[in-house]
Model the fold of this input.
Amino acid sequence: KLTWRNAVRVLRDAEDVARELRTRRGPSHATIEQLDGPAA
Done:
């Protein structure tokens, strides 16, 4: 039960951070290749 509450709290905090970041910057237009480099 305690572990579940911690997981819910972490997810809620992550959503709060994501919401705040969305107000400060727009979406990324990067492609997977730009982020990860060329496929091996």
